[in-house]
Design a protein that fits this description.
alpha+beta; globular
Length: about 120
């Protein structure tokens, strides 16, 4: 079996360069300077989202519950590393805009993988 096209996913360096092209002060531009910390599957993890300095050092902890799907992605968007979004439940927050209880957020996979996984020892 042969395939007519090669499907390449962007490298970590290409991902950082793409994020750095966003305007200074944007979340994506800030994420371009942070390392990927989570390589495990995201569903069900407790994740402290990375604080974005320009937006205040407020802690938000989420649990990704479902990867959101989009049917109208271009070929370029499909090749993006960490290119999707997740429906997340807010489980702890210092940010008054996103209180615990009743708030589901759509969070980019790019931001989630740069967050800190919180491990609970039982």
């Amino acid at each position: 079996m042969t395939f007519a096209t090669t499907f390449l996913i962007e490298t970590p360096e290409q991902e950082r360069a793409r994020l750095a092209e966003f305007p200074a002060g944007s979340i994506n531009h800030a994420l371009s300077t942070l390392p990927v910390l989570i390589t495990d599957p995201l569903e069900g993890l407790l994740i402290r989202l990375p604080a974005i300095v320009d937006r205040g050092p407020l802690t938000i902890v989420v649990v990704p519950v479902r990867r959101l799907t989009c049917t109208s992605l271009t070929a370029e968007e499909l090749r993006r590393r960490h290119g999707g979004y997740w429906k997340c439940v807010v489980v702890a927050s210092e940010d008054p805009r996103y209180p615990v209880g009743g708030h589901n957020l759509s969070v980019s996979e790019t931001r989630l993988v740069r967050g800190e996984q919180i491990r609970i020892g039982l």
